Structures are given as structure tokens and as C-alpha cells.
Amino acid sequence: MKIAIDGPAGAGKSTVAKRIAKQLRFTYIDTGAMYRALTWNAMQKGIDLNDTQALTALAHSIDIQFQFTPEQQRIICNGYDVTSVIRSPEVSAAVSIVAAQTQVREVMVKAQQQMAQHLDVVVDGRDIGERVLPDADFKFFLTASLEERVARRQLDLINQGYQVDIESIRQDIIQRDRMDMERETGALKILPDSIVIDTTGLSIEEVCAQILTIIEEGGHAI
Fold this sequence. Notes:
Radius of gyration: 17 Å
Strand content: 15-25%
CATH class: Alpha Beta
Number of helices: 9
CATH topology: Rossmann fold
Strand order of the largest sheet: 2-6-1-7-8
């Protein structure tokens, strides 16, 4: 079974996807973390983030793996654990620049499709239902109000030890939304077969319960 979860920054995609995958005993593929790892690696190498040719070459050569532990899923990039560093404000501010480039996305989408080919998966990102898993059994689109997404992002950063001005977070999310919706390939959008869930005011448990109920009603065994 393939479950796609799309939505804007701060809508709760990754947290929900992880829990759904754990409950269903599926493999969770965090595509956003893959783009973040690529962005982080490019920044470490001093690559111009607008240099599509260099970034595409890097995307072809980079080794990104997911390691599952009882506590959390860890992201390994070229042998380094980058789970925490790819969530830094610097990477967050730059990742949409990298993800907007068509040639880069083509390489990454192929890698994501290969991961999902022979597994039961929950995959989250911006273009999963349209590009990565167009044949997904379920396509969810999670959204939330801007203020709620800003508050969630601020809390995430505080929990990671970062102190960031809330207005800078708001502007970053607005900018990321614009870039995600306007890019030429893999733009963020609600598809005709998307199941839209507004997570504003809902707990993670409530959102997961809604999704699991929909899956159950779809006739698939859990």
C-alpha cells in the first residue's frame, strides 16, 4: 500500500506521517529530509544554491539513508548523521531554492520512487500525490492556518535549542509557500483526488485518528 501526505510547511505532515507509518508498520519516507540533506551538503561544499548543474550532479552522487531506531528515524548523509542539523534555520531558509529546480527534483523523485517500489510506505512532502506516488492508494493533503504553522515551527525550533524571532519565522513560511506553489515542477497543490484535512486546532492524535479511519473505511486491512 502507498499513502501520500502532502501539504505546506508547518501543517504537521512529518509528525503525522511518522505516527501513521508506525501504527501501520509501514516504511516512512521523509522526502523533505532528503531535500534538506542535499541542501545541507551543498552548503557544506560551498556550492552556489542557484547552480542547477552542480546541484544536479550532487543529487546524483549523494548517499541519503534512513535509519530506524526505537526512538526516532535518523537521516544519514554520506555516512554522517544529519538528523538535527538539517532542521536548522539556515537550511530551512535555503531548501526551497534547491527543491524548486526541475533537474534536481527529477533525480530526487526517481530515488524516492525506487525506495517505495516494493514496500508498504507512507511518504510525505509537497508533490507526493502528483509526482512521486501518482498511483497512491490514499492521497492526503494536510493544511493549517498561517498563525498555527508559525507557532508550530517556533516550538520546533525552541525544542531544538534555537531562538528565532517569530516574525522571521512567519516571513520564512510565507516565502516557502510562495516558492513551493509557484515552482515549475512538483508545485504544491491540492489534487482532484486529494483528501484535505485542516489540522488547525487539532492534536496530532486527532489528525492520525481521522486518517486511520479513512484508510479503514477504504477497505484496507490495518
